Amino acid sequence: MVKRSDKVAEEIHKIISELLIKGLKDPRIGFLTITGVKVTPDLRQATVYFTVHGDDAAKKNSEAGLNSAKGFIRKEIGQALKLRCTPEVFFKYDTSLDYGQHIESILKEIGATDDGDDS
């Protein structure tokens, strides 16, 4: 059984992805990927998770660019979804990919120090 908030989250994900491809012209927004959207059950708030390919400066610049375009993004979501109340949009950097890369580097380091001797 799929909740309504999950369906709205999928639609918001599509809308924001399309806006990033063709609608937002902010030069601060770098090459970023929307990794997920979570919407509260009352459909009042949407948290958009994103990752940025680059360093910490690119992450901060992209987050600032997204936050400055928050009103435009919310207006576009409202026009596309036609809900009674358009959700307030919050952007949050997704640290799960960085954490996964950290774990992978630790495992590679352990594998490099292991000589395969089980005695």
UniProtKB/TrEMBL annotation:
Broad class of where this protein is predominantly found: cytoplasm
InterPro entries named in the record: KH_dom-like_a/b, RbfA, RbfA_dom_sf, Ribosome-bd_factorA_CS
Keyword Ribosomal protein annotated: no
Protein task: One of several proteins that assist in the late maturation steps of the functional core of the 30S ribosomal subunit. Associates with free 30S ribosomal subunits (but not with 30S subunits that are part of 70S ribosomes or polysomes). Required for efficient processing of 16S rRNA. May interact with the 5'-terminal helix region of 16S rRNA.
Lineage: Bacteria, Pseudomonadati, Thermodesulfobacteriota, Desulfuromonadia, Geobacterales
Protein name per the record: Ribosome-binding factor A
Pfam families: RBFA
Matching SUPFAM superfamilies: Ribosome-binding factor A, RbfA
Family the entry assigns: Belongs to the RbfA family.
Record keyword Electron transport present: no
Subcellular location: Cytoplasm
Record keywords: Cytoplasm, Ribosome biogenesis
Assembly: Monomer. Binds 30S ribosomal subunits, but not 50S ribosomal subunits or 70S ribosomes.
